[in-house]
Design brief:
With 139 residues, this protein is mainly alpha-helical. The protein has six helices and three strands, in the order H-E-H-H-E-E-H-H-H. It has a three-stranded antiparallel beta sheet. Helix 2 packs across helix 3. The protein is elongated. The chain starts with 18 loop residues before the first helix and ends in a 10-residue tail after the last helix.
């Protein structure tokens, strides 16, 4: 029996995502489930990774609770357990606070204009990084 996990979309304590983890999550946010081979084929051109590196990174994301792994027709397939906005929230907090030194919501507004995120994703991301959230609710 396969355990079904829900995607975390409102997680204020989303784990930090490294660049390599983001590279793995990006194709899975567009379409899932995908096998390691499918993810590797979509990321190897830009990452230059070996197949085994892609597999190891995906297994680590499973261990971190960011990907679910299920077997379908004898092949393991993966799907994200964290939404794109929840995954980006930590990165944007760091980038807005320490690199740009500007309001986080302004950074999200800049992203909205380029079509990288849907209106729903922008709303969710804004909610996740909003400074008005009680600090006691954060990790």
């Amino acid at each position: 029996m396969t355990k079904v996990s829900k995607t975390r979309t409102d997680d204020k304590c989303a784990p930090e995502i490294s660049k390599s983890e983001y590279d793995i999550l990006r194709p899975l946010w567009k379409q899932s489930p995908l096998s390691v081979r499918e993810v590797h084929d979509q990321t190897s051109v830009t990452s230059g990774w070996a197949y085994t590196t892609t597999k190891t990174t995906m297994d680590r994301l499973v261990a971190k609770g960011m990907l679910a792994r299920e077997q379908q027709h004898g092949v393991f397939v993966y799907r994200p357990l964290i939404s794109k906005p929840a995954g980006l929230a930590q990165m944007i907090r760091f980038f807005a606070d320490r690199v740009l030194e500007m309001d986080r919501v302004q950074v999200v507004s800049m992203m909205q204009g380029n079509g990288a995120l849907s209106d729903h994703e922008v709303e969710e991301l804004t909610r996740l990084i909003d400074d008005r959230v009680d600090e006691s609710e954060r990790c």
